Amino acid sequence: MIARRMRIGLKSRKTALAVTVVLGFFILVTVLAPWIAPHDPIQVNLAHKLQPPSWEHPLGTDHLGRDTLSRLLYGARYSLGFASLIFLSALGIGLLIGTVAGYKGGIVDSVLMRFCEGVMAFPSLVLVLGLVGIFGPGLAQVVLAMVMVQWVYYARMFRGMVLDLKERNFITAAKISGSSTWKIIRRHIIPNVLPPIVVMGTLEIGWAIMDIAAMSFLGLGIQPPMPEWGAMIHEGKGYIRSHPELMLYPGLMILLVVVTFNILGEALADRYGVNGAFERGRIHDGKTAQRIAGK
Amino acid sequence: MGSYIGRRLLAVLPIFLFATFLTFLLIHLSPVDPAEAYLAASHIQPTEELIAQKRQEFGLDQPLLVQYAQALMKMCRLDFGTSYISNQPVWDEVMLRMPATIQLAFSSLLLAVIVSVPLGFLSALYKNGVIDQISRLLAFFGASIPQFWLGYLLIYFFAVKLDLLPVQGKGTLANLVLPSLTLAMGLIAVYSRLLRTSVLEQLREPYVLYARTRGLKEKLIMGKHVLKIAFSPMLTGLGMNMGKLLAGTIIVEEVFSWPGFGRYFIEAIFNRDIPVIQCYVLLSACLFILCNLIVDLLQMYLNPRISWKGRTES
Questions:
Q1: What is the helix, strand, coil percentage profile of chain B, to 5?
Q2: Domain of B134, in residue numbers
Q3: Nearest residue to A39 (alpha-carbon basis) of A51, A22, A56
Q4: Inter-chain residue contact B140 with A259, CB threshold 8 Å
Q5: Is residue B279 domain-resident?
Q6: How does pLDDT run across B265-312, given as a tens digit for each residue?
């Protein structure tokens, strides 16, 4: 069904099908990892280290004898799971604050938006790293830091949309008919601003995956032995001469997922009139949001 | 024009103040007491007395705003405190590593411009042609490929397999090739597409038609008129991409063991060397603000019509 609905946006049925299949596959893997993985992803077995592919280990084993395929499958859980968590949290906070700021206006709006602009004055990844430096390395801290930085972009975007909506007749009508502010926001504003955000979100999840992986690669995010793709590249880099596949596979996974999300996001953006997100946007650290939220 | 520059500079001031305040606040949000961190880093057994003494020395017993004012004054004098680890002034340590990062950033920026200008221009002229297809593919993967992974791929092919280029280290031109290429890839992806879109937009403008009817040579129209104006969005992109470039240097320096500021920053994160972290975050914000200001001014100089139109709207 998804394939059918997206057909109009995507250049051809084939692309739509490919995107759906790949994405469906990854979501399935994320959910089913414990059942389909042939081995325990963190079970160390030094007797079987750095083995070539075999029936027992279809993609071989890593330097600690852990099954590479199982680690890749579990990796989808961490990468997609945490990227979605960050995206949804940032979106939620941004939605709340952006809507309130846009709808209330006045001093609340000014203060909140000045704060957002201040945060946007920093390159976002640098600010995330700075926060992680202050909180200390670790997965929870990385997630927290990323949410703290990301919500600002969504808040700006929501605010812009709410400002636009506020002047519409149906909002005035709701006001006249005596609806409370909260009810107007909940019943009329939020349903109207949400769909375009979902479109943007598809693009942003791809970026969140990449950022999480970058953090783990730097050794700040997901710590070994947890099988996250970025962390796997971090672990595999020492074996680049003898076993390049250890860093090749996880990178390919990241590339595949990010490309899929980008294609999907671009297609959805085309369809919903948020045009050229890929060609013209992504200027600021991949924050399409900012371009749209812009002045 | 003078008043415009003045206004822009004034507009930067509150952002700058906010940025300094935010970085200042970071330290106070931190669960780590700077005095304790300092003592721990210097391998001194922290006692109540020593901590109290250090707190006084750092001015931590003063009200928050007083502390901020003091910190701001110090920052203006380029005094960012001393590193907890090396006990050297942070600014000296930064200056030691900054040239390497700047060299890396500039060479990749240069590479990105050299590649993406002809690529973007040609793919606009021969829309949907072979070059356009190649550049589209390149842009797509360039934007989706994780930088650190690309770095290792390049190391694998050019250093391990072909044994053409050195893996790490700094000094010769050959050392610079792989890191710059890694860093430039993402920029090429954005710039080439940006230029393509903007050239295509320009080609639809009436002045191109007019120039053609006047019988001007196609080369002249493209080189002198279209390309000059089409540069404008690319320039904006350049300014806004500074953040990406900066974040990129951190990762690329880590991959290629490049002895720059970014790698120092990561080390500082692991060591909880807070003055260094603060300095990096603040400097990057300043750089980001400054670059965007310069880009805006440059753009106004190159193309007064467009930039003024944009200003009056906002």
A1: 80, 0, 20
A2: 99-260
A3: A56
A4: yes
A5: no
A6: 998 888 888 888 888 888 888 888 888 888 878 877 776 665 444 444
Which CATH number applies to A68-275?
Answer: 1.10.3720.10
What's the confidence (pLDDT) of residue B158? 86
Cβ-contact A62, A225 below 8 angstroms: no
What is the ipTM for the molecules in this complex? 0.80
- Would residue B41 count as lying in a domain? no
Please report the residues numbered 210 through 249 in chain A whose beta carbons come closer than 8 angstroms to any beta carbon of chain B. 210, 213-214, 217-220, 230, 233, 237, 240-241, 244, 247-248
Contact between B288 and B246 (Cβ < 8 Å): yes
> Measured between alpha carbons, how far is B38 from B57 in angstroms, rounded to an integer?
12
In whole angstroms, how large is the CA radius of gyration of chain B?
24
- Domain of residue B233, CATH code: 1.10.3720.10
Q: Domain locations in chain A? A: 68-275
For the stretch A165-197, pLDDT in tens is 888 888 888 888 888 888 888 888 888 887 777
Q: Are B249 and B260 a contacting pair, CB within 8 Å?
A: yes
CA B273 to centroid of chain Cα atoms: 22
Distance from CA of B211 to the nearest CA of A (A): 27
